[in-house]
Here is the input.
Amino acid sequence: MSEFAGKRALLIGGAGGIGGATARTFIDLGAHVTVVDVNSARLEQLAGQIDSPKLQTIASAVDSIAECRRIFDLIDGQVDFLIHLAGILEPDFLDADHRDVWDRHIASHLTSAFDSCAIFRERLRPGQQARIVLTSSVAYRRGSANHVAYSAAKGGIVGLTRALSRQLAPDVL
Here is the structure.
């Protein structure tokens, strides 16, 4: 029996290629998976490709702490794995009069990751062994021309990951 049997994974921003492959792998190993994504059509496509009673999909932008709580409330059972894949990539040109691109990137990548981790921690049982995976990009190290907000948000994910690893260890890795 797999160590994942009976466990539950929550994939935020998981309807794309990486999320789909991750969901399939967890299900193949016996876990239940909830995939959350803003794109309803991709969620439907994923559900059609996987076609398993162990898959749950939820359409959401994960754009507030209240929405994170709602998502966790919709999940039947304890979440053991939080995988945050959410984010956007759109060009920005460091224009002070158009900070909307910056705000969208920070919200989509970093704020949603923070909120998801905060609710995940809030819902942990005492002594529960759990895992968090936050995805970044090499763009945070090298920078990406015309993608200032994306690069900064991905750097923030690395800092968040490092801080959480110190705060939540050894129960959450």
Notes: DSSP finds six helices and five strands in the chain. The first helix runs from residue 17 to 28. The beta strands are 8-12, 32-37, 55-59, 81-84, 131-134.
